[in-house]
Amino acid sequence: MTAPTGGRAPVTVRSTVPARIDRLPWTQFHWLVVVGLGVSWILDGLEIQIVALNGAALTHEEGGLSLSTGEVGALGSAYLAGQVVGALVFGRLTDRLGRRKLFILTLLIYLVGSGLGGFAWDFWSLAVFRFIAGTGIGGEYTAINSAIDELIPSHYRGRVDIAVNGTYWAGALIGNIAGLYLYSESVPVQWGWRIGFFIGPLLGLVVIFLRRHIPESPRWLVTHGRAEEAERTIEDIEERVRHSGAHLEPVPESKALEIEELPPLGFRQLTRTFFGTYPKRSLLGFTMMVTQSFLYNAIFFTYALVLTTFYGIDQGSVPWYFIPFAFGNLLGPLVLGPLFDTIGRRKMIFATYGGSGLLLFITAFLFNAQVLGAVSQTVLWCVIFFFASAGASSAYLTVSEIFPLELRGQAISYFFAISQGAGGVVAPWLFGRLIDAAGGEDAEVLNTVPLMWGYVIGALMMMTGGVVARVIGVDAERKSLEDIATPLSAAGVPAGGTTGDATGGTASGRRSR
Predict the structure, then answer these.
(1) At 283, which CATH number?
(2) How many other C-beta atoms can be found within 10 angstroms of the C-beta atom of residue 256?
(3) What is the pLDDT of residues 404-427, one digit of tens each?
(4) Which one has a higher pLDDT value, 183 or 292?
(5) With contact defined as beta carbons under 8 Å apart, do 396 and 165 qualify?
(6) Can you list the alpha helix ranges (DSSP code H) found in 301-373?
(7) 247 and 339 fall within a common domain
(8) Is 29 helix (H, G, I), strand (E, B) or coil?
């Protein structure tokens, strides 16, 4: 397919690439995609936890930097700002240049930024390196979610996406366990935090090798004027699947998708698509992303403060309470993920968002009644976030599958940026102030009421997210991406596709332009 010149009409091709991908059985090739691409969330969890634990070393005089607590907090903000910038910039690029180029480039940027962090000599150098690492991870979110959705067959897409997003907590767990040694007396203070910044890059170097064997998304190729390359790529994937012993039935021509050239979309066209064609889906994505981000950032970034302030836990013992918390977060997506493909997206989002919100609501009043201890509080967190983690992962799944392929990366990046701004900035600040309102060490009796109401707000927000998803959510389980949202470049689609907020119906035939 070539770009139109002069007044010549755009060339249209018919392709069965999407149907051929969705009819594939699960094989070794798909494990390669999951492992090679899914490690991004492990790296993010690792980064967050390493930095969360090295705060004491960075402020310690022997650590070499002697930062203030405010500067340590600013490092987290620099990383977050990098994620937002990376998501917005690379989200647009992954839709224009392809998934493969971007998931290689963004990983390299992360490797450089995180590795350089181990060589930082003052606050500003470390802040810049953290920002660079953040841009790489932010770009990873957009390119990786897009690639996974487009390469994984529709029958498995939900569970895979949710499980992969949940592996963030595997990274956090690795970082926590490494921190128990790196920030102990066994390692000099000036070396422990520096070594911590090298763990992610060492893991990333292995992943670079795996990603060399992952092809470009055939779906992206066929909608960007590279039909012949898309055909070669899908044939290579099918050959790998056959080599694993699977038998593939031919795909009928009735499953073909008609694709027409489409010039790059401008901001005005993107805005019109999001809020004109898909207003309900945009509201859905915004609500799900913001509510889960608020809850997670509120609890996660004040987890240690709650244990030390209200339960008198020594700072050095906090990592031991974090291990079961991380396990609960990791198990939720792995155990509940398959149900999003069988029971359905809307029902499971409602159950996980609503269930975690209800449990947090109850816990808020138990906390205020002061009937909980550090162990029982941790147990309740584990149960709450067993459900919340699966729900939060489903938010990323939702925004990556309910919009047309041509703007999938940008959809992920926009909603990710909004959620990080709302949850990553407002929630930690708000809950930090609520904990300060308890009275601190000088108070004879700690005031638990302000934080209780903070938990109530988080609980109500999560339940609201669940209700919104139940009412206007999309029944995307086991459906082709093209049936969920017709590509903008489609001139004709198989029966079942949709070009608007409807969750079903038919959009076959040539679309008007």
Answers:
(1) 1.20.1250.20
(2) 18
(3) 888 888 888 888 888 877 776 777
(4) 292
(5) yes
(6) 303-310, 318-336, 339-342, 345-368
(7) no
(8) helix
> Hey, what amino acid is at 325?
F
Q: Which two tokens stand for residue 306?
A: 């709650």
State how many domains the chain has: 2
Structural domain range at position 109: 10-261
Q: How far apart are the first and last CA of the chain?
A: 19
Spatial contact of 53 and 321, defined as CB atoms under 8 Å apart:
no
Q: Are residues 213 and 278 in the same domain?
A: no
List, in sequence order, every beta strand (DSSP E) within 105-167. none
User: How far, rounded to the nearest angstrom, does the alpha carbon of residue 68 sit from its chain's CA centroid?
Assistant: 31
Question: The tokens 């607590």 sit on which residue?
Answer: 69
Q: What is the pLDDT of residue 351?
A: 97
Helical H runs in 98-122? 99-117
The pair of structure tokens assigned to 399 is 């925004």
* Partner residues linked to 463 by β-bridges: none
Mean pLDDT, residues 349-362: 96
Together in a domain, 458 and 386: yes
Q: Are 29 and 237 in contact (CB under 8 A)?
A: yes
Choosing from 236, 261, 286, the residue where a domain stops is 261
CA angle at residue 335 from 334 to 336, to 5 degrees?
100
**Neighbouring residues of 192: CB distance < 8 A, sequence distance ≥ 6:** 54, 57, 182, 183, 184
Distance CA 371, CA 347 (A): 33
Same domain, 244 and 379: no
Tens digits of residue pLDDT in 284-339: 999 999 999 888 878 877 777 788 888 888 877 888 888 899 999 999 999 999 99
CA dist., res. 304 & res. 301, Å (int): 7
